[in-house]
Amino acid sequence: MTTAPDRGGAVPAESSGGVASDPATRGDVGVATFRRAWSDLAPVGRAPGGAGYHRFAWTRDDHTLREWFAGEAAARGLDVVVDRAGNQWAWWGDPDAQPGVVTGSHLDSVPGGGAFDGPLGVVSAFAALDVLRSRGVRPARPLGIACFVDEEGARFGVACAGSRLVTGVLDADRARGLRDADGTTMADALRTAGRDPSALGPDTETLARVGAFVELHVEQGRGLVHAGAPVGVGRMIWPHGRWRVELRGEANHAGTTPLADRRDPMLDLAAFVQHVRAAAVDADALATVGKVRVEPNGVNAIPSQVTAWLDVRAEDEARVRAVLAALASWAPAEESWTPVTWFDADLANDVARVLGGSAAPAAPLLGTGAGHDAGILAAAGVPTAMLFVRNPTGVSHAPAEDADEADCLAGVDALATTLTHLLTRDQP
Ligand code: GLV
Ligand code: MN
Ligand code: MN
To answer: Which domain range does residue 255 map to?
Structure first.
């Protein structure tokens, strides 16, 4: 399997197949769209040094990405609606006449994130739409392409902020008061981006337009590598959450304070991280301390305070709760919680069968420990499916995240097939 030469770049490795097997030479419209869109996005929000991406909500790069989305929609004659949270919806057909089938994902990233988590779903959505049109598909209901804002929660701490806001899972007052690392509130960031923060809130009008939602995403593991399949179908999302722990100490001079007189919260942090690991092992869960803030963060000063963020996930809620119970003395404060999400089993089986076709086995069904806007919509009662595209490294939220171009194009094809099925079948 070939891999991308530049891990921080946004170019999927091209298939090693010969000319005859290259879809571009067959004139597939989805291929042209995919390649052009992918190279458009490649330079936006590159991390310093080029290793991965820093694409955070309501920043200048985010604005560039939003403009790109609006431009792609306009070029296809789609109507763009921006909902109360700032999520973008591009419509082919009128979703107020009848609910539509929506596909899409997000364009923001974690700090130092890979090229595929999010953008693959948005780019594939436009490419699949072009495929549908080139095939002369006549949808019986509207088709929407969605770009959710702030999926990673990298700036303000709450993942899937855009979908949580419109579904009412994230309270608008709380969202407005969330602060980034510089102390800027989400309300101020929205104002700077030209949006009215008082608009935040549940958006039933937007949700009423979504009859079904399909999110295509790079796989964040190696399930499809083991299955030997380029594309799989989502079965469920593990329950997961984020907590904050405050460790207080006493600021003092690094060169003049005897060790015995110190109250150093860095020592508490070290102990906490060890406890987190042990609790996760005991509970058969995953737990991560991936973000800390140290005050005042000076090399020659004992810190006055350390704040640590904890991410815990497991196959079931009892295991997550067992980790939290083992860490109770650290008083973790919950910042977000997502219960287990089971995707609509009938829809998942239907999509897996349609993708398999009559001659092939159904596409594999996969669970995942990663959160997605699809999970938030599913929990809100929207019939939802996910498609995963094989990731040869299995790495995600890091520059080594990868997908071969041939698999990305298989994903576009699978998405086009799924959308055609959902847009043309008898029931909505
Ligand atoms: C988002 O990708 C998450 O799983 O945290
Ligand atoms: Mn992610
Ligand atoms: Mn994602």
So the answer is: 240-338
In a domain, 11, yes or no: no
Do 136 and 86 contact (CB within 8 A), yes or no? no
Domain annotation covers residue 249? yes
Q: Which amino acid is at 230?
A: P
Please indicate whether residue 154, judged by its CB atom, sits closer than 6 Å to ligand 1: no
Same structural domain, 27 and 57: yes
Beta strands 143-148 and 100-106 are parallel
Domain count, the chain: 2
Is there a single domain that holds both residue 74 and residue 44?
yes
Nearest to 341 by CA among 427, 226, 213: 213
Ligand 1 pocket check: which of 110, 237, 291 to mutate, most ligand atoms within 8 Å of Cβ? Answer: 110
Per-position pLDDT tens, the chain of length 428: 333 333 344 455 544 333 335 554 445 898 999 999 999 999 999 998 878 999 999 999 999 999 999 999 999 999 999 999 999 999 999 999 999 999 999 999 999 999 999 999 999 999 999 999 999 999 999 999 999 999 999 999 999 999 999 999 999 999 999 999 999 999 999 999 999 999 999 999 999 999 999 999 999 999 999 999 999 999 999 999 999 999 999 999 999 999 999 999 999 999 999 999 999 999 999 999 999 999 999 999 999 999 999 999 999 999 999 999 999 999 999 999 999 999 999 999 999 999 987 766 779 999 999 999 999 999 999 999 999 999 999 999 999 999 999 999 999 999 999 999 999 988 77
Question: Nearest Cα to 312, choosing from 297, 303, 300, 324?
Answer: 324
Domain of residue 269, CATH code: 3.30.70.360
CB of 409 closer than 6 angstroms to any ligand 1 atom: no
Which residue has a Cα nearest atom 3 of ligand 1? Answer: 371
From the CB of 370, is ligand 1 less than 6 Å away?
A: yes
Last residue within a domain, chosen from 281, 314, 338:
338
Domain identity same for 382 and 275: no
Task: Return the ligand 1 atom nearest residue 152 CA.
Answer: 1
